[in-house]
Specification:
Elements: H1 3-32, H2 37-52, H3 54-68, H4 73-91, E1 98-103, E2 108-114, E3 117-122, H5 129-140, E4 144-149, H6 154-171, E5 178-180, H7 187-196, E6 199-202, H8 206-213, E7 219-221, E8 227-231, H9 237-249, E9 259-265, H10 269-277, E10 281-283, H11 286-296, E11 297-298, E12 301-302, H12 311-318, E13 330-334, E14 352-358, H13 361-374, E15 381-384, H14 388-397, E16 403-405, H15 409-412, E17 447-453, H16 463-474
Parallel strand pairs: 3-4, 3-6, 4-5, 6-7, 8-9, 8-15, 9-14, 10-13, 13-14, 15-16
Antiparallel strand pairs: 1-2, 2-17, 11-12
Helix pairs in contact: 1-7, 2-4, 2-5, 2-6, 3-4, 3-6, 4-5, 9-10
InterPro entries: Ald_DH/histidinol_DH, Ald_DH_C, Ald_DH_N, Aldehyde_DH_dom
GO molecular function, one term: oxidoreductase activity, acting on the aldehyde or oxo group of donors, NAD or NADP as acceptor
Pfam family, one: Aldedh
Amino acid sequence: MGSQQVEDQASDETAARVTGIVDRARAAQQVFERFDQARVDEAVTALAWALMHPKRNRELSELAVQVTGLGNVSDKIIKNERKTKGLLRDLNGQRTVGVIRELPELGLVEIARPVGVVGAVVPSTNPAATPTNKAINAVKCRNAVILSPSPKGAEVCARLVGYMHEELDRVGAPRDLVQFLPAPVSKEMTLELMRQVDLVLVTGSQNNVRSAYASGTPAIGVGTGNVPVIIDDSADLHDAAAKIARSKTFDNATSCSSENSLVIVDAVYDAMLEAMAGQGGVLLNAEEKALLQDNLWQQGSLNRRLLAKSAAEIARAVGIERADRDDTRILMVEESGAGPEYPFSSEKLSPVLTIYRVADFDAAFDKVHEILLHQGAGHSCGIHTRDDAHVMRLGLEMPVCRVIVNQAHAVATGGSFDNGLPFSLSMGCGTWGGNPISDNLNFRHYMNITRIARTIPPVEPSMEDLFGAYWKKHGLEPE
């Protein structure tokens, strides 16, 4: 048998294997589609409990750190609980079965319908929280979901889905509503899944996002994070430093929403660095910065051995003895430019924070814009300020879908109990980031809506209504 025949046979076997999983998902979804709202909501609660059970949460968090080497156990426990609890809060009382809205003045009735089988590609950075979020949203809308985990996170996904099956059995829902691609998960298997399902959702690798868009299946991908945050001269510096440190160190900066750059106006620059030092930030000198750069990037890519490690671990690994202390929480480097020739202007997925010194808010605005055009356009930016005009200018002019004000960015961007953003681990970046959505991925993206349209009294404007003001302004006369 020739090499091409071997490849074709392997491809056929992969397609058949995925087809079997998808067929089981379709059968389960067709049964579940007939469940009423109460039974759907009970299935949602069951899936949440699969992770929220304290013993399971700890077990899965420990396993995640063990097999991926990313983040830390205590923060993953918090993330799993907080994200899942917040999602349940958002979904509470939301109708996803039958009539969901009636607009008699328009003669319209809206009916929620499932999309069918969802294929969800999930990253190694959140191997329990992200699959749970996607599974809950999919099932809330009476879909089945098939998870494609990263190879590093496959063991966590398998164990999580096992617990989900136990809970689905408990409430009498089909266990094949939630499935996963078995190890070893290959690129070919994921691509085949994308081709066979009804909707693809991708969080993580931009290569996977591009593959989803090219699959021929409707797809929602999310963009790259590289969050810049402005500190203006009206900011509460100690509050800002505490929140930035909390966000930047959470789970060793595995979140794409953690701060990557601080853009600090000159009037408060020294005081802000002092406040950051009080939070365990260590400002590296030029020699130490060069040493970190040489190790953090290898052949133009981030060094996976240093991703999502603590600041002290990174300092120890690269030989920065001054920062090799337990109280070192963040490594800070000063930078001037943004772009490929300035690696520290990019996303770092580690507690490494780039610091820019600028003259004033106008210069800060320009620097943030420059950073985002290099990487992270569409995702989000932040600001610590008491000046609402600065906030509004960012919202009106900066190419981002979220402006986070006076908050710990990684905590706030994906929804928080003290802001109104939907709880999510997937941030749509709009057309700026090459995405079809600009909001946080949420349950509304997992459903179709059928609209019944009945007649109403005609509402037809006259030509005078439409053009009268225009005619008058420009001295025109209708023909």
